[in-house]
Specification:
It contains twelve helices and twelve strands. The protein is of the alpha/beta class. The longest helix has 25 residues.
């Protein structure tokens, strides 16, 4: 008997000012939900919620009962998929119902039948974790088997730090500065758009990691291929230090190029699909730090989400504005308000919402729902209207050829590893929320 129950964040009834789009699924037409809101429950892949049809039935039923209208399901975790028809192999997760059961397709069918949207949550840069089960991917075509630490030369995609460290905690990450790794991230996301009637793609960990070797300095991204590309693009011959402004901007551009390409290609496949990202709000907001470029998100994680919104290559910005910040002295209330206000005021006709988390949940199934940000005077784009990539399409040929030699887009705190939602241990520990509280 299934005893798993979906527990929602009941801290408040959260909603996001998002008018949902028409699904391309023939059997699904939810129409505009009450108030035109996007009220989502997030289902992570470290519990058993996606393991079989009865569990998926339970998720959909609980979502419906709570008057929520979307499920954001973590289908791509570390180079594999809780699905059968993506560019990455089906997950080896023990306990998953055997093939041909397709978790994502089953979720789409059952959720759409109840008027609930499904957004595919994709972990962008992680492609394996040490210490799990199985120890290495079963599939010989898994990216970690072909391009992990055992690969040599150009075939090696692993991101390394300036001091040679090749893992972020227990995670193995691909380097966004390696052109094939960057394309792999894009292909993973867009293959889901092409093969499933998802209503959205949600990009997580679309940035450089925490755990820098120097406080306040972005020291990840030293895969030899990435460094060689930077040198070729700039005409330099030195190995740049982490604080080098030109090197930091080049790496930042690699992340932006991936987001842009996911956006453009998903739009080309099916214009109604919404692209969202889970974004960083570490420390004080831009109001306190003296501007966006002085924030940790921009300067350390090299995640220019304000630039993505400004360019129009993101439909929904989801600032992860719910973790504790153990600075001294800490003013979490001010940090929270600063980031909330900044996100609200930087929507650029797209949408922005903030997550809420119920730390009382007894299991790792993570509920996140969204508080509405007030719309700016210019208003939000109605989601049923065709989206225009706003300048991105004109730059597609110039900035998105991620092959070797591409010159793509050179524009001119106490550091402890922060446990993001997707970073929490998947080893049977009793609660993911405990890890979330240990933010830097």
């Amino acid at each position: 008997m299934i005893v798993r129950k979906v527990v929602f964040a009941l801290v408040a009834v959260m909603a996001l000012a998002w008018l949902p789009q028409q699904s391309q699924s023939a059997e699904f037409d939810a129409g505009t939900p009450p108030g035109g809101q996007f009220r989502a429950y997030w289902v992570d892949a470290f519990g058993d919620d996606l393991f079989d049809a009865p569990r998926i039935d339970a998720i959909v039923a609980a979502t419906k009962a709570a008057n929520l209208n979307a499920i954001v399901a973590q289908v791509v975790r570390r180079g594999d998929c809780f699905c059968n028809r993506a560019a990455v192999p089906r997950t080896d997760q023990p306990g998953l119902a055997p093939f041909p059961f397709d978790p994502l397709q089953t979720l789409i069918d059952k959720a759409h039948a109840q008027g609930i949207e499904v957004h595919a949550w994709v972990i962008a840069t992680a492609f394996w974790r040490s210490g799990g089960t199985p120890a290495t991917p079963v599939s010989p075509v898994h990216a970690f088997n072909q391009h992990g630490p055992s690969a040599t030369g150009y075939a090696n995609w692993v991101m390394s730090r300036d001091d040679g460290l090749m893992q972020s905690n227990t995670d193995w990450l691909v380097d966004p500065g390696h052109p094939d790794a960057a394309q792999w991230i894009v292909d993973t996301a867009t293959s889901i758009v092409a093969n499933y009637a998802v209503d959205g793609i949600n990009l997580d960990r679309i940035r450089y990691p925490d755990g820098n070797s120097q406080v306040g300095v972005p020291t990840w991204g030293y895969n030899p291929v990435a460094v060689a590309r930077f040198q070729q693009a700039t005409g330099r011959t030195d190995r740049p230090v982490g604080s080098d402004p030109q090197w930091a901007q080049w790496r930042r551009d690699q992340i932006t190029n991936i987001v842009r390409k996911v956006y453009i290609e998903s739009y080309a496949i099916r214009p109604s699909v919404r692209v969202s990202a889970d974004t960083i709000t570490y420390g004080n907001g831009p109001q306190t730090q003296g501007g966006w470029t002085n924030t940790r998100a921009y300067a350390e994680q090299l995640q220019d989400w304000d630039g993505w919104m400004r360019e129009g290559i993101l439909d929904l910005n989801i600032p992860m504005n719910y973790k504790r910040d153990q600075t001294s002295p800490s003013d979490q209330r001010k940090m929270y308000q600063d980031w909330s206000d900044f996100a609200k005021d930087q929507q650029y006709t797209r949408q922005s919402g903030r997550g809420a988390l119920d730390r009382r949940q007894p299991r790792r199934g993570l509920g996140r729902v969204f508080v509405p940000h007030a719309r700016r005077a210019r208003g939000c784009r109605h989601a049923r209207r065709p989206r225009e990539p706003r300048g991105a399409r004109a730059r597609a040929d110039a900035g998105l050829d991620l092959r070797p030699g591409d010159t793509a887009g050179l524009r001119e705190h106490d550091e402890r590893p922060a446990d993001d939602v997707e970073d929490a241990a998947d080893d049977g520990s009793p609660s993911r929320h405990r890890a979330i509280e240990r933010r830097d």
